[in-house]
Amino acid sequence: MPESRELPDYAIRNRAAWTTANANYTADHARDSWMKDRIDWGVWNVPEDEVHILPDVRGLDVIELGCGTAYFGAWLKKRGARRVVGVDITPAQLATASTLNAEFGLGLEFIEANAEDVPLPDASFDLAFSEYGASIWCDPYLWIPEAARLLRPGGEVVFMRNSTLQMLCSPEEGVTQDRLVRPLKGMHRLDWTDEKEEDSTEFHISGSEMFQLLRKSGFDVVDFRELFAPDDAEDHPYYKWVPAEWAKRWPAEEIWRARKR
Ligand SMILES: C[S@@+](CC[C@H](N)C(=O)[O-])C[C@H]1O[C@@H](n2cnc3c(N)ncnc32)[C@H](O)[C@@H]1O
After folding, report:
1. What is d(CA 261, CA 251) in angstroms, rounded to the nearest whole number?
2. SS3 for 208?
3. Which of 73, 82, 87, 124 lies 20 to 30 Å (CA to CA) from residue 101?
């Protein structure tokens, strides 16, 4: 795997946070996800068969930006994607992904790189994808144009992130509240510090800013969904920032799909 180019401060913080997350949770749970044949979304595993937002991936060249343990890329390969390349900055996450890739024999490729600056040629993919990867850990003003660069005309970007409403109800520390706790105006970079967790940095811009950014980057938005937790959902054992009861009442997650002109 090639060396990362120079990383911004937040990518270095996030790499440390994801090295810890790999040791504490993801490495032990990734195999269960790789084993599944069903595609599902987010913290509460909402089935794609209910959401119907993904394009038909058969024969497509796919790049997953912030692939983590790459279970989503594995699902897309099982659905017939021709090529799946996972990009991530955290060696520990890529090591888990590579071990499972060897075990399952799916032939994914991995690159250790910042998803805002991917060392691959223009117009090499049909689908750029992120589920809580670049979509929340990278600056949208960098990664969305980078996704556009990597895609062929007619190619699509599909990504899941926390809903804007959920971000507005997320305090500096502790779980999501049932009231607005931060302004939407100017929301962009969010630096999280928590004595119990690693420091990390996320990005979130409003829905209208995301819409305009996608348009300016050469995309037409073709779909947008807000996901609720299912009625029988329980709090996630590791991703505890949104109580299931909150997410049953308000959408905690959203998915965007946009097509490059
Ligand atoms: C929630 S995980 C991705 C989940 C993914 N759906 C999976 O299959 O595991 C977030 C990942 O984003 C990666 N990440 C964070 N900042 C990044 C950046 N600037 N470039 C690439 N990957 C990044 C982290 O290393 C981490 O592995």
Report:
1. 29
2. helix
3. 124
Q: Is the pLDDT of residue 5 over 80?
A: no
* Residues constituting the chain: 261
Q: Supply the pTM of this predicted model.
A: 0.96
CB 143 near ligand 1, within 6 Å: no
Core vs surface per residue 134-143: b (16+ CB within 10 A) or e: bbbbbbbebb
User: Ligand 1, from 137, 159, 255: best to mutate by most atoms within 8 Å of Cβ?
Assistant: 137
Pocket of ligand 1, candidates 85, 93, 199: which has the most ligand atoms within 8 Å of its Cβ, to mutate? 93
For 30, 85, 124, 219, 223, the CA distances from 60, given in Å and listed in that order, are: 24, 11, 10, 18, 19
Token pair belonging to 199: 């420091």
Report whether pLDDT(65) > 70: yes
Those residues with Cβ within 8 angstroms of residue 258's Cβ, 6 or more apart along the chain or in another chain? 156, 157, 214, 219, 220, 221, 222
CA distance 252 to 257: 17
Distance CA 133, CA 115 (A): 9
**Ligand 1 pocket member 70 (CB < 6 A):** yes
| Residue keyed to tokens 């929301």 | 187
Ligand 1 midpoint to CA 18 (Å): 8
The rounded mean pLDDT for the chain is 96
> What is the amino acid identity at position 142?
L
Nearest alpha carbon to residue 164 among 242, 227, 252: 252
